[in-house]
Amino acid sequence: MALTLAVRPYRRRFVTPLHTAHGRWVWRQGLLLRLQDAQGRVGYGEVAPIPWFGSETLAAALAFLTAQGGAWGMAPVPDHLPATQFGLAGALADLAGAEDGGERERPAIADLCGLLPAGSAALAMAAQRWAEGHRTRKGKIGVLPLEQEIGWLEQLVAELPEGLRLRLDANGGLDLAQAERWLRVCDRINSLAPGRIEHLEQPLPADALEPMIKLSQRYQTPLALDESVATVGQLEHCWAQGWRGVLVVKPAIAGAPQRLEAFCQAHRPRLVFSSVFETPVGRGLALALAARCGPDPAPALGFGTQGSFADHWDTLTPAALWQML
Ligand code: MG
Question: What is the pLDDT of residues 300-309, one digit of tens each?
Fold first, then answer.
């Protein structure tokens, strides 16, 4: 039986615009979904696409949802709409009460990966923010000249409190020689303080899978894929090609949650779950999925994104947020 489907677009402004490979990201736009059954029970879901990361555009998601004519008969959503797959599956799970019995558990700050600004700014802010309780921090590399960034890392490592781990994310911006230079530095740091560099994320472009597999076999520091594995289909492909390193998963754009769960159960991959700056609606559903799929003990979640927006939405329930839009 078809469920009533309603869609509301949203738009949120970043406190500080993010620098992405595709320019400044000022507004986060997406859709909230509400499914309602004949008894009047409702479930909320979210479509939070990032087209430059391999998902559909907001316009494509909206066109598909509008074409449903206000009802959804639970027909399969095509694979070229992964964020829409997540949104409808999430709303359905929420409606079925499968996710929880109401209030969602919030992860402790120590379980979230905090962000570092690039280069010397990280050194300046480091001391105060170490006190915030994150056990893992992530910094972007491949932004400034290589030797300058390596100098920054060496200095940062010397000042870090014991036990704090770093993730370095190149967003696919290095060439092979630069990636090897970074990996030699990371291996040296880790030989003195094991596990200090938790992983180096996406050193080479998304399609350079084979050279990244070779790098992962030649160096001790773990490598993680992120841009290479935006969707579950890409996760499955990289696994089939022989990748056994870390995989970053952004549930909100990965596609159908059932397929992601099946992949996890079949292969027990080393997953790190990450946000796409979704609202509390998508965040709750993504964290619930991470709890079902993730290894135990789990590496820090890439959901240290609260406070990124100039609004109070993170304090609202799904129903309150829906009413406000
Ligand atoms: Mg990344």
Answer: 888 877 788 9
The beta strands (E) that lie in 94-184 are given as: 113-116, 136-140, 165-169
Quick: pLDDT tens for 45-77.
999 999 998 899 999 999 999 999 999 998 999
**Backbone φ, ψ for residue 149 (5° rounding):** -70, -40
* Residues 226, 118: Cα–Cα separation, whole Å: 19
Distance CA 28, CA 279 (A): 10
Predicted structure pTM score: 0.90
Burial 97-115 (b: 16+ CB within 10 A, else e): eebeeeebeebeeebbbbb
Nearest to 294 by CA among 158, 107, 61: 107
324 CA from centroid of ligand 1 (Å): 32
Q: What is the β-pairing status of strands 23-36 and 42-47?
A: antiparallel
Distance 194 CA to ligand 1 centre (A): 22
- Whether 237 has a pLDDT exceeding 50, the answer reads yes
- To the nearest 10 degrees (0 to 180), the angle between helices 82-95 and 58-66 is 50
214 is catalytic: no
